Structure to design on (172 residues):
């Protein structure tokens, strides 16, 4: 579901890992609904501080990117906002194994994408009512709570948001 906090959670994970030495390189790429192999290849290469050839053949570019990733040693690649499945090999993404120490995480709204890309599914839960109210109040302001007329309205708003953090933040 959109707005449940997938990207926000991954930003926290990314920022926390920046402080650790677990991976030699952290790579973040936003895939988006209008997936483009060349753009994704360029995004990954630029974070490796490299450039790919301008060759129109994405297979050649995939080979170049694969070699760049192999030379990195351990890395974490976060692919955010994946809407449809694609082949890691076609892009040039090194397949993570226990031997190479590389990890790949993707965020998606689609269980089908998770299955097709042979990934482990970790579902982000909705906020509980109390958590949702706390988040909403943090945006609206705690000073609104003593007003009994507003309290009922706020509870209705929080209920309508269905535990989605993004909706609570925007409406707050």
């Amino acid at each position: 579901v959109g707005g449940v906090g997938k990207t926000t959670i991954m930003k926290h994970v990314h920022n926390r890992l920046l402080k650790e030495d677990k991976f030699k390189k952290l790579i973040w790429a936003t895939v988006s609904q209008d997936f483009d192999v060349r753009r994704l290849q360029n995004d990954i290469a630029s974070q490796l501080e490299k450039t790919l050839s301008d060759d129109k053949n994405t297979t050649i570019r995939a080979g170049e990117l694969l070699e760049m990733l192999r030379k990195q040693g351990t890395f974490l690649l976060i692919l955010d906002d994946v809407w449809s499945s694609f082949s890691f090999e076609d892009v040039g993404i090194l397949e993570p194994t226990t031997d190479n120490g590389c990890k790949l995480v993707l965020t998606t709204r689609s269980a089908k994408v998770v299955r097709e890309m042979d990934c482990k599914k970790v579902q982000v839960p909705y906020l509980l009512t109390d958590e949702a109210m706390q988040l909403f109040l943090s945006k609206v302001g705690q000073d609104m709570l003593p007003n009994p007329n507003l309290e009922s309205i706020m509870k209705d708003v929080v209920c309508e948001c269905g535990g989605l953090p993004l909706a609570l933040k925007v409406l707050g």
Notes: The radius of gyration is 20 Å. The beta strands are 25-32, 75-82, 103-108.
